Amino acid sequence: MTGVEIDMVVSDSLKALELYEKVFDLQRVEVARAVQSFSQ
Q: How far is CA 14 from the centre of its chain?
């Protein structure tokens, strides 16, 4: 297998990524912290 992409919805993606890096052999391609906003 040369590459896999897994899309998941989590409350804190960077914390989830830290866990996944311990479990899987990962290569970070793009990492950014999203800002959540609410419109009224």
A: 6
Token look-up 């996944």 returns 20
Q: Mind giving me the DSSP string for 1-40? A: ----------S-HHHHHHHHHHHS----S---PPPP----
Select from 32, 24, 19 the least CA-distant residue to 4: 24
pTM over 0.90: no
Q: What is the pLDDT of residues 1-40, one digit of tens each?
A: 677 777 778 888 788 888 888 988 877 777 766 666 666 5
Residues 31 and 25: beta-carbon distance below 8 Å:
no
d(CA 39, CA 37): 7
